[in-house]
Amino acid sequence: MEWMQGAWGAALAVFLTGMLLVTEFLVKARGLAGLAGVALLGWYAYAQNPGLHSWSAGLLLVGLVLMILDGKVIQDGTLAGCGVLLMLIGLVLPTGDFLKGSLVAVMWILGLLAGLLSLKVLPRRELWDKIVLKSALTRETGYSSLNEKYRELVNQKGTAVSDLRPAGTIKIGGARYSGISQGVWIKKGTPVTVISVDGTRILVQALEETGEKTDPADGEKKE
């Protein structure tokens, strides 16, 4: 008991407590890390205050409950942050010494950070897999920031099947799409060409007189 009342003993106990509690929240420790952390926390509190003053024990208890509620129910980190702060106060004030309290505060924070290392050696809890998006949105996994079908329309020619003022409907290769002009009015039946595509936004412009004609029915050019 006496070793924990010393500055370094108290700091070590606080470090291990923070590390064990974070480990319990992040990985599948089967409750062992949590039980060990709570037991060490209670031992620390009793060593610093044999009388277990209600305010000190209350801060530690409320802080722990907030961390548990956040990890099990709310899962947004707000309550957990408040809980960590309350526990920090409950750990530091009973020391009654500025240097010892500062050392305890630093070791508490380092212990919480050290608990993150458990993710590298133990399987993470399923709730974190649900919260964190692990799959990359890549073309290989079926995703693309730009719809491939629409991107293939660049430089293709078609016909405005409605007035574009500046948005309207165009027809390319027998298929209809929503198109938008460059701020100009394009009349229905005007041959157009796709100059760019941004997602599903198709930007078109009227074809100049080049000798090419576009079939209004299907958007195919004819000589």
UniProtKB/TrEMBL annotation:
Q: Origin, by domain of life?
A: Bacteria
Major place of residence:
membrane
Q: Where in the cell is it found?
A: Membrane
**Record membrane topology:** Multi-pass membrane protein
Name the residues that span the membrane. 6-22, 29-46, 52-70, 77-96, 102-122
Domain NfeD-like C-terminal per the UniProt entry, residue ranges? 152-204
Keywords attached to this entry = Membrane, Transmembrane, Transmembrane helix
Provide the Gene Ontology terms for cellular component.
plasma membrane
Q: Does the keyword S-adenosyl-L-methionine apply?
A: no
Q: What is this protein called?
A: NfeD-like partner-binding protein
